[in-house]
Here is the input.
Amino acid sequence: MKVCSKCEEQKSLSLYPKKTGTADGLAGHCKKCNAEASKAWRTNNQNNYVEGYKKYTAKNKNNINNSAVIWRASNKEKVSANNKKWNAMNKSARCKHSTEFKHKKTNRVPPWAGDELDVLVKEEAYKKARSMTNSTGVQHEVDHIVPLRGDTVSGLHVWNNLQVITKSENAMKKNHFVSTEVFA
Ligand SMILES: [Zn+2]
Here is the structure.
């Protein structure tokens, strides 16, 4: 038997919860008092949480854009499409820069490359390659119509030597320049 430190009733040891680190391995409060205390704590805590949340939302009414949250939640497909679009655009920009860098090293970028038209067409070409890849699911690449390091002729990394074709077409073509009516 043991006296509860809370309700001060004498109770059998089986009515006390176990607690490590005490002399008898039992808590000072009986199970009943323990349950009441934790219930009170939960209720109190719950109220604090609700009160805190109410205060927060009242204080930050203008900062919490509920409509945007609701819109995003109910337009998940649009959100993911927009994210994809953004990623693709970003990727094409990255892609362009790395390709430009690579071709600079091979001296296939002439000094007059980089004017407005050249930049615009190149950007569009990489964008188109990305969007073709996304919409068809087939990998598209920006290709040099006349290969930069061809067997017979070498082309330049300029706007009028670019086309968007599939990756497999590009692989088949490799560095063999197939003469067409345009260049014949
Ligand atoms: Zn008690």
User: Anything to note?
Assistant: Residues 4, 6-7, 9, 29-30, 32-33 surround zinc ion (CB under 6 Å).
